[in-house]
Automatic annotation (TrEMBL):
Protein's name according to its UniProt entry: DUF2861 family protein
Signal sequence, start to end: 1-21
Organism: Vibrio ulleungensis
Keyword Signal: yes
Domain of life where this protein originates: Bacteria
Sorted UniProt keywords: Signal
Amino acid sequence: MKRWTVLAATLLATLPVASQANWFSNSSALTLAHQALLEDDLGAMFDALITSWQQEPLDANYRQHVNDLLETSLQVDCGKSISSRSYPEWIRTVKVTQSSLERPGRVSYSLDLDIESDVTITDAQIIDWPENAISKETKQNLILDSESGAYRFNKNFILNQRLKPGLYRLNLTTESEQKWSDWLIIYDELRDHEVRWSSKETWKVVKNELLNTHCPIPIQQVKLLDYVDGEYETVYDKSYEGNYSENIKSLQTSADRYVLQVSISHFRYQGLIRYVDQQILSKTVDFADE
């Protein structure tokens, strides 16, 4: 028995009884996606899901079912083989980061697009298919890395809420009017780990479920930001992989008021596109001299 059989049965059980009755008697795109998953053909599964999003009813049961199907597919290689599409020769890397910033009494959302390329990128859009831009409030930046010789393009999309599961289109335009597009399926995954405040200056990492061993270990980052001359400057920055911190160690800054940020990031892939889900806790703290 293939390893997907039990998983497929579990996913099937999430469908309404009426849908289960004729599940394998039709040839819908979602059925083809299941068949491709059972055959370990993740590329065909992903292509079928794209077609499914375009053609089939998008009710709550459907969205949850596709969500679970995508999560199941990560048990092979964290999504690296889910798409065989290649970058054009002028793109080196693409990373999409969806973030939630949790401050006392407020949560804000954003999406960052980071691209490393050999040419100047002048514009990038992420479209909620078929035609809705995910945000009108954006900021973008382009720098030339003197060491690698690559251009580093960043575009920040300010969101009113976390992007809903669905089909999105990534569109890029260069200075010489070259264009490139690719599909991106956003889905809601249960975070393996989450970070929570324990006290004013301490926190803990909560383990919701076992880690997906096919994906990179979630990265924790701890930062202190100081507000100087109208701008925030990072005065403390530590990262942890696995052996997570619960407080600031070896603080060597003056007594002052700072912004403390603790984040944890989960890494997944959709082919060559790296997808990051980032949870950030942020609060103002006062540190005194010891």
